[in-house]
Amino acid sequence: MGKPMKNMTTDFEQIILLITEARSRVYSKANAELVMLYFSVGQIVSEKVANGRWGDGTVDDLANYIAEKQPLLKGFNRRGLYRMKQFYEVYSDNEFVSQVVIKNQKVDREGDKFVSAVLTQISWTNHLLILAKTKTNEEKLFYLYQSINEKLSTRELERQLNSATFERTLLSDKFGHAIAKQLPQGIFKDPYIFEFLALPEIHSEGDLQQALIKNLQNFILEMGKGFAYMGSKYRLQVGNKDYYTDLLFYHRDLQCMVLFELKIEEFQPEFLGKLNFYLEALDRSVKRPHENPSIGVLLCKGKDVEVVEYALARNLSPALIADYETKLIDKKLLVEKLQQLSEIFYKNEE
């Protein structure tokens, strides 16, 4: 007699897993070779142009020559060659590589090792997006490591770039540091962008909650990797009464619950009392012994940063007060907001 069907299915799934893993390794190696190739070609073009041996016409001739010799090869037209040149020049710059060393001591200063350790981990399409949509070295580094650590697809990376994730993360980190709270950096944002909700200008907290639940996949994409959904209207029993939270998540890396409470108005100090009450109830009745204390995020339709600073100054629970927007924000406005926030706290420190 043959094996029972259940055992056969298990065996089949094991083979499927082996095939999937092998294909992933093949793709990863092919991508690494491709990135190394583009970097090397970019180096030749850059150096020839820099020393005056090649001009624009020569690059055109090279593109035509490659098309003649390798007619099936894509990406080596004039535009593609100049992209490779830009790719090499940006990531071979000593100033850029030195910043990588500061952020990650495992990355060697030698250009080849940086290329193999970092740049080959990302698809060429993602590289093109980063080159096209970022300006500073810090911004490029941020999205390089986001792409690697969170395994961002092209669509996910493009959304992060379009919604100014770098600026919003920097804003949240500076704010959290300024008020001396033990919030982990790089996890939370301010503001959060919910352009996918299609909410009317006037909406209720219930409308916001239902829209976020309906678009849960996009909501988690906006929050970042590591969040697992635990539920909405999560029931907490304290004394003889039941209380219901808005949106509860668990973060795998932080090993703690993260509670999102929704407000459709500007932040008011009294909102913190309710949030802290919920966090205390979660830690007493839901948190497991090996888990870390719960974190609360108040999503408000605007806030006065000085009011927030005062409200959080003596707050003991890890909490973040963040804005939410239903439309994409101009990056210039976020930069201005970051500068204003820094000025306020620098002034207070003086």
Descriptive account of the structure:
The protein is built from 14 helices and 8 strands. The protein folds into 2 domains: 5-162, no CATH class; 165-349, Trna Endonuclease, Chain: A, domain 1. With 350 residues, the chain is α/β, with parallel strands linked by helices. Helix 6 packs antiparallel against helix 7, helix 6 runs parallel beside helix 8 and helix 9 (165-178) packs parallel to helix 14 (331-349). Strands 1-8-7-6-5-2 form a 6-stranded mixed sheet, with helices on both faces. A two-stranded antiparallel sheet has the order 3-4. It has helices spanning 5-50, 56-69, 78-92, 94-103, 111-117, 124-133, 137-149, 154-162, 165-178, 205-214, 216-223, 270-285, 305-312, 331-349, and strands spanning 192-193, 227-232, 235-238, 241-244, 247-251, 256-262, 295-300, 319-325. The chain is globular and about 80 Å long.
Structure classification: alpha/beta
Strand content: 5-15%
Q: How many angstroms separate the termini?
A: 83 Å
H/E order of the elements? HHHHHHHHHEHHEEEEEHEHEH
Number of domains: 2
- Please count the helical segments: 14
What is the architecture of the largest domain at the second tier of CATH?
3-Layer(aba) Sandwich
Mean pLDDT: 84
Query: What is the CATH topology classification name of the largest domain?
Result: Trna Endonuclease, Chain: A, domain 1
Shape: globular
Oligomer: single chain
Q: How many strands?
A: 8
Reading off the top of the CATH hierarchy, the class of the largest domain is best stated as Alpha Beta
